[in-house]
Amino acid sequence: MGQGLIITGAGRGIGAATAILAAKTGWYVLVNYHKNRQAAESVCEQIHNQGGFAMIYQADVADESQVVDLFSFANQQLSSIGGLVNNAGTLETSMRLENMDGARFDRVFATNVKGSLLCAREAVRYMSVRHGGQGGSIVNVSSVAARLGGPNEYVDYAASKGAIDTLTVGLASELSEDEIRVNAVRPGLIDTEIHQLSGDPDRINRISKYIPMKRPGSATEVANSIVWLLSNQASYCTGTFIDCSGGR
Ligand code: NAP
Questions:
Q1: pLDDT at site 207
Q2: Fewer CB within a 10 Å sphere, N or C end of the chain?
Q3: pTM of the entire predicted model
């Protein structure tokens, strides 16, 4: 049996592309989703059709008991957990900071930061050799917004991704003797449905001209970096970042 890999938010976008690619390389994938069951089922079906193994599991990553249950389910169904991709993420309507309310900060940080912390914690409990596990690999999905700051659009989202970068550095060091590597991918402008949440349907076209490569990336281009960091080919990489952003 292949090693188990949990990918949060894997029904759509970058998570879905990562699930499909990871399954091709032999991972047994748990496709977590939040609301869109149909999309998650479709990812599973594609993986089964290509001869891979995948299961779906509904959980809100911001909810502690749901995350605990997610990992317990994965541990039972996948025999051993060897990887986590902290991919689930969200953003809200583009605006300047003075127009945002506190409830929005709670929502964005709950999914992007608390969700990643909870999932990483559970992954450590199952994967660390300190706790009887076999070690493994965590890949956090950050954003170039952590570097650029998201001015005039979503400095809250950018700050949440800054937290993910800090988590990656700290946890990589904390877990180096637990045989768990922790790395991050910082995607740039990627052609997925997340941009619809910004309220600007033309966002991808509007921003593409500012990217050195003059185009958005695809979810599969990001998935290639994530799956490489998960793999043993990245065996000496921990606490590091791949900016998959067309030079931006
Ligand atoms: P997407 O197409 O909108 O997909 C987001 C996924 O996250 C969906 O599968 C969604 O589940 C899931 N999700 C959202 N909230 C969740 C929650 N509370 N619990 C569990 N799952 C949840 O977005 P994407 O572009 O692929 O983004 C994936 C990651 O890449 C995010 O962390 C995002 O910040 C990051 N990123 C994206 C870009 C970009 O340009 N696209 C750039 C930089 C970074 P449902 O399908 O069930 O709704």
A1: 94
A2: N
A3: 0.98
Three-state DSSP string of 120-173: HHHHHHHHCHHHCCCCEEEEEECCCHHHHCCCCCCHHHHHHHHHHHHHHHHHHH
**C-alpha separations of 26 from 37, 168, 186 in Å:** 24, 25, 24
Residues of the chain with pLDDT under 70: 1
Q: Which atom of ligand 1 is nearest to the CA of 34?
A: 47
Q: Which pLDDT belongs to residue 1? A: 64
User: What is the per-residue pLDDT for 192?
Assistant: 97
Which residue out of 67, 111, 194 has the highest number of ligand 1 atoms within 8 Å of its CB and is therefore the one to mutate? Answer: 194
Q: Quick one: the chain helix, strand, coil %, rounded to 5?
A: 50, 15, 35
- Which among 34, 60, 63 is the best mutation to test ligand 1's pocket, defined by most ligand atoms within 8 Å of the CB? 34
